[in-house]
Amino acid sequence: MMGMQQQPGVFVLNKNTKREQGRKAQLTNIQAGKTVAGIVRTTLGPRAMLKMLLDPMGGIVMTNDGNAILREIDVTHPAAKNMIELSRAQDEEVGDGTTSVIILAWLELLSVAEPLLEKKLHPTVIVSGYMQALEDALSELKAIAHPIDISKPDAMREIVRGAVGTKFSSRWGDLISDMAIKATKIVCIEKPDGRKEIDIKRYAKVEKISGGELSDCQVLAGVMFNKDITHPRMRRIIKNPRVVLLDCPLEYKKGESQANVEITKESDWEKLLQQEEDEMRKVCDDIIKVKPDVVITEKGVSDLAQHFLLKANISVIRRIRKTDNNRIARVTGAHICNRTEELTESMVGTKCGLFQIKKVGEEYFTFMTECEDPKACSVVLRGASRDVLNEMERNLQDAFCVARNLLLEPRMLPGGGATEMELAARLKEKSKAITGTRQYAYRAVADALEVIPRSLAHNCGADVVRVMTDLRARHAAQGGVNMGIDGLKGVVADVKALGIMDTFAVKQQTLRTAAEAAAMLLRIDDIISGISKKKRGDGPQQPAHEMDETFGDARDGWPNDDPAPSIRTTNTSRVCALG
To answer: Which one of 293, 324, 398, 553 is the catalytic residue?
Structure first.
């Protein structure tokens, strides 16, 4: 009888493939998350540190906005990439709490799972405990929240100030808060069914102009855009103008493809020119017929059209952005017309009180202000340098989102870590009623929630152990719901009396996103990576959504007025803290 021959090993995966399985994969994910979360941990609270991000092109970004930092840095670990996506989702959904969700999900919810995994608890049991804790936390959150009257500006200002109080712009008091509330109320439209629609990205445009005083920052009751009239003799100031908006060129149509015209007689050439002139005159007559004072078009305007419209005492602005045209339509009540033949009296905008062209800095800007019930606005930011303006804009976007959340869901919660400590105290009490190993995971969520007040205390230089012990004792007693940390002094205080409040929508989204993301990553037990260099290409490709900012005109794909748009590269960003 022949001896059994040894079977050769079967290679299913490529030899270059790197594979991590079981607990090793989970611990690798946890370690990657803790590394990236460590970068943004010091950016929480009013005493937060700034991060300076340097890219290979020489660009510099200074910010303490969690999403802005994570968007700039380049990571290779798949779990860390998922974390950056998490921050972006939080920013798009509610606009605030990006740093909190990263710290909660990665620094704590995954960290507290590490000892449970070492005790041989199955990830499914841990996830089950996390999900039950999330459900209970959300129901307790609704019990703690109390409604506010959004008709009172002071109540709204307190909450918005609480959100931007941790930002760079907090040194300018209520400036950013007041501008955000005013702009959000302007663009808010109430539908017949009582539902509110607030499209800040499209209808609240932020214009950053270097120079000037900080007190020059304002929200216009109308719009402004970086354009001048096409002819110097046209009117620059018009009161109560009649505005016509066009989406068609005021120049003769050119052929679709290259066409050659052979002319044998000089008279034929004159006929050709006359025909172009007649065509242009007809287009201009259609416009003049509705007696406008201002004509704004997204396309070009020929010299001939300028001549005819100037004779009719009409000011013309050309090559305006589509998004700007939509905003002008909102504030003036005009309808954008695609063909001049279709112009009617109902399409003319009459709600604008003042059309004015002013020189601000080195450039000319058109202002359309004093509008009657505007549903769009421009926010003018003035500051010393470009870096300051960029950071102010990022802070303003957060304030916009908080104001929008308040108008959509007018409920608020105590800030300064008070809500998290109260939830932690209540979850620890509830965990005693849970049987089995799931109790460990449930209690771990309660411990993890304490990371927010702990980070706040740490970032403002307080004695963390003493402050946290005091805070736990206050929340264990009755009536300690509003006890949190004063982020400026590092002491335990009544945050409601100090006016440190958070919106319900942000807290709810932060808890939900953090718990669900942690649960998803704990269920990963196998990481396979090993794509050949030929398939991968020369270098890491950037996701399409990270190429541009997603707010303002960038979402419409409209090109900048700059001659050469800047390209952001994030391959080798370095991060350093500013004191």
So the answer is: 398
